[in-house]
Write a structure and sequence with these properties.
single chain; 5-stranded mixed beta sheet; 3 helices; globular
């Protein structure tokens, strides 16, 4: 019986560690994220986005954010975000296509944001990207929900 309880606890610990509910990214002055693919668990109650800008340039020259959306919506969200401007973190207010986003930060800064895990569905084509003007075309990656 004691061995069975130990096995059950070990299985629970492994499951808890295997559940990834954090999107943890670093961005630099070369317009790159440190990852191009991230997987989060479909069972997450809340998903947290963590962004660290490891570059040195100021937010006005090389600002970065993280936006989560359907892959097909990257360009239109970015175009509308550019019109919204820096004060809006380059994300149009009340844009229903945006699942979540962080604020725009410059070199040496960090930011976080959280959103309900229920906003993501397994098997759907999601991406993360930076909506700072001109960055979205190359500064992006695939977000998989399993």
């Amino acid at each position: 019986m004691k061995n069975l309880i130990c096995l059950a606890l070990l299985g629970f610990a492994f499951t808890a560690q295997a559940e990834n509910c954090v999107i943890d990214l670093k961005a630099d002055d070369q317009m790159k994220f440190d990852q191009t693919e991230i997987t989060v668990a479909a069972s997450c109650k809340t998903v947290q986005i963590k962004l660290a800008h490891i570059g040195k340039l100021p937010v006005t020259a090389m600002g970065h954010n993280v936006v989560i959306a359907l892959t097909t919506d990257i360009q239109p969200i970015s175009m509308d975000g550019q019109k919204a401007g820096a004060a809006a973190n380059y994300v149009a207010a009340d844009d229903k296509r945006v699942i979540a986003h962080t604020s725009v930060i410059g070199g040496g800064a960090t930011t976080t944001a959280s959103f309900p895990g229920s906003a993501l569905k397994a098997g759907t084509d999601y991406s993360f990207f930076c909506s700072f003007p001109g960055h979205w075309a190359i500064m992006k990656g695939k977000l998989t929900v399993k």
